[in-house]
Structure formats: C-alpha cells, structure tokens
Amino acid sequence: MTSSSWVIIGIFLAMVLFTQLGWRKVTGFSLIRPYIAVIIVSAVYLRNFPTSGNDVVAILVSAAVGALFGWLMVLSTRMQIGEDGKAKVWCGPWYLLLWLAALGIRVVIAYAATSWYPKQFVHFMLNHHLSFTVVAPVFLLMTIVMIAVRSVGMWPQLRKVRGQSTKLGNTAARTS
Q1: Res 147 pLDDT > 70
Q2: How many Å apart are CA 155 and CA 175, to the nearest integer?
Q3: Can you give the pTM of this predicted structure?
Q4: What spatial distance separates the first Cα and last Cα of the chain, rounded to whole Å?
Q5: Which residues lie below 8 Å from residue 67, measured CB to CB, with a gap of 6+?
C-alpha cells in the first residue's frame, strides 16, 4: 500500500475516533462535516473512473458494500435529546468495529495483492477483465458511500427524536 493510502485510512480513522465515538452533540457542523470530507476526498482522489472490462461492475459492487456498511452504522447508533434539549448521538463499539472492518478489508486486499499473493491477484484481475487502476477507486468509493449513507441515515433519527421530544414536552427522547 502506498503512503497516501495509509494517510487516507489514518484520516478517516482519526475522524471517527475524535469526532464520532461516544456521546456527541448533534450540531449543524457535525451534520455537514461528513459531506465536506466526502466532497474533498472525492475531488482530490476520484478524478478518473476506469470503465474497461468489468470495472463498472466492480465499482457498483464496492458502492453496494459501502452502502451496506453505512446502513449497519446507522443501525449501530442511538440518538436522544439530552437534558439541555439538544440532540446527541451515540456511536459505540459496534460502530467502531464496522469502521475497522471496512478499512481492514482494504488493508488485507492490498497486502494480499502486493505481498502475500501477487501472482494470484494478477491472475484474478486478468481473468475477470478488471483493470489494475480500478482498485484504488473501488475502495475509496466504498468508504465514501459508507460515509454518505451513514450521514443521510442520521437525519430520520434526528427528526424522530426531535418529534418525540416535542410530544413529551422536551423530556429526554431516544432512538435505538
């Protein structure tokens, strides 16, 4: 794996560890921060999508896997209205494990391709009509879709707890 790949993984992991784990207040910035990250990473790293052979299929599969991880992340979070009347979101160990699994898939495949089984990887890519330039966009797209689905999935939870809070007279309301 290249150093830029490790930097991207490190940035995403740091973002999760320092901005999402545990109970966090839901603010305007916390709701748009994932979109900002997705836009920046997309603009910098997703310039050309390979479309030869089965590359489009690989790209679509990676987006589907990212969507699945994102949805599982939505399901692993809880949201509630705190005593101060502000929405809070909780991301715990399952959320972190999903992030580690998603990033770990990339690391394992990268090492299998370059260090552990390079001949088999080349054989697989050629037999399945995949270009070698599809690998990085596939994993980056998986992460971007995962973040986007998780971010979009938080909005219904927020509306739900705000609605419950209003009905209960601003006492603590929860989703799980």
Answers
A1: yes
A2: 12
A3: 0.81
A4: 38
A5: 145, 146, 149
Cβ atoms of 8 and 140 within 8 Å: the answer is yes
Most confidently modeled of 19-28, 89-98, 165-174? 89-98
Contact 87, 159 (CB under 8 A): no
pLDDT band at 48 (very low <50, low <70, confident <90, very high): confident
Residue 20: C-alpha distances to residues 27, 150, 152 (Å)? 12, 12, 15
96: CB partners within 8 A, 6+ apart: 16, 17, 21
Locate 126 and state its tokens: 């050629």
Token pair of 42 as six digits? 């997309």
Do the Cβ atoms of 16 and 99 come closer than 8 Å?
yes
Tell me the domain boundaries of the chain. 3-160
